[in-house]
Amino acid sequence: MEDSNTNSTMDNNANTPGSNDNKTGLSAEDIANNAFKKDTEPPRLDAIGAKPKSPKKKFSLKNLTKKQKIIIAVIAAVVLIGGGFAVWWFVFRDKGTQPSVVEVVEEAPAPTTVPSKLTGLQVPPEYNQRTVTAVMIENSPDARPQSGLKDAGVVYEAIAEGGITRFMAVYQDTEPDYVGPVRSARPYYLRWALPYEAGYAHVGGSPTALAEIKSLGIRDIDQFSNPGAFERISSRYAPHNVYTGIPKLRAVEAEKGWTTSNFTGFERKEEATVDPATINARVVNLAISSALYNVTYTYDPATNSYLRAQGGAAHMDERANAQISPKVVVALAMEKGIASDGQHSTYGTIGSGEMFVFQDGTVQKGTWKKDSDSAQFQFLDSSGNPLKLNPGQTWISMVGAPDLVTWQP
C-alpha cells in the first residue's frame, strides 16, 4: 500500500507548476499570460529559450570589399552620364541647337583709298571707275595763261603746226569746271588718247584727224556736235576763247553711255625721301620748238616736283593762280615730220625711241615703246625693265632728237 501512494504522489508532482521538470523556465503565471496574448503580437522567443538576433550594423564604404566598391563606382558613373543625356534631351534637343564655342572673326575694314590708275595718287576706290576725259588745249601766246592744266593727271605736249605746241590734258581723279582754251584735234593725239578709252574733247580738227576719229573708234566730244558742253568767253577773242569743264563733259559721256574707261596706266612707285647727294638734274631744258615754246623745268626740293617755265616765264594756271609743277617729266625722242598738206605735223607714234625721265631731282635714261594705236606707252630702263614713276602729275613732251634734252646738276 505504501508503494502505491508513493508513485501517485510522484505523478502529481510531475504535473504541478513550478516543479523541477518545467524546462521552459516560465512560471505558471507567465504561461497563463502568454496564452492570452493577441495574435498580432509576436511571441518573445528569447523568453522561451530562442537565440536572440544580432543588432544591425550601419552601412559604411569602409566595410565594403574592393569588388563592391568598383561596382558602386560603375553604377554612379552610369547614373551621371544618363542624367547629363537627359538634361541635353529635354533642354537642347527641342531648340535644335547644341552648346558650342563660337569663334568670332572680325573682317578687316575695306580700304578707304587706293592708287589712282591714272596718277598713282591715293583716291577713293570709286574714282577708278570714272571715265577718262582728254581735252585739247591751245598753247599760242594768245591762249596763255591756260586754265585746268594744273589739275590734269597726265599732259601730252607736241607741235601742232608752225612750231606752235599744243597740249592734250587727261583727267580722271579731278573735275575742274573751267578748262581751256580748247582747240582742234590732230592724228597723233588720237593715238595717245585711245589707250585710255577716253572721251576726246576738241573744236574741229585737221581733215585727217576728223576722219580717224571715226575709223579708230574714238569717243568723240566735238564742240560742233555738243555745243552745250562748251562756251565762248568774252574776255578773249576767237579762236582762243572756247572753254569747257570736266563735269559738263562727263554729262555728255553719260548721255552717250560711256560710264567708265578700261585702261592701263603707267607703272608707279612709292615716293621716297630724296637724298640731296643723289640730285643730278636740278634744271632741265627741252628744245621742243622756238624760244616761245621751249621749256625749262627747275627742281623744287620742298615739293619734290619740277616748276615749269616756257618762253622764259613761269607757266601759270590762270584759274588756280599757281605755277604748273609736275612730279614727273618725261621727254620722248620721237621722229617728227610734215603732213602731205605741208602744214600739220606728224609723229612716229608707234615703235620705240630714246627716253629721259626726270623725277626726284634725277635723270634716268631709257626707252619708250608703243606697239599699236591702242597700246599704252611703255617706259623701260636701261636694262629693259619697267621704269616706275612717282605718283602725281606726269608731263610727257615730244622732242625731235635726244640731243634736244639737256640738264644741269
Describe this structure in words.
With 409 residues, this protein is α+β, with helices and mostly antiparallel strands. Among the domains are: 114-255, YerB-like fold; 276-408, YerB-like fold. The protein is built from six helices and 23 strands. The chain has helices at residues 2-14, 28-35, 66-91, 187-193, 207-215, 246-255, and strands spanning 114-115, 122-123, 133-138, 154-161, 164-171, 199-202, 219-222, 230-232, 242-244, 283-286, 295-300, 305-310, 313-314, 316-317, 322-323, 328-333, 336-338, 345-347, 351-359, 362-370, 378-380, 394-399, 405-408. The protein has a ten-stranded mixed β-sheet. It has a five-stranded antiparallel β-sheet with strand order 13-12-11-10-23, with no helix packed on it. Strands 1-2 form a two-stranded antiparallel sheet. Strand 11 (295-300) and strand 12 (305-310) form a beta hairpin. The longest helix has 26 residues, at 66-91. It is elongated and about 125 Å long.
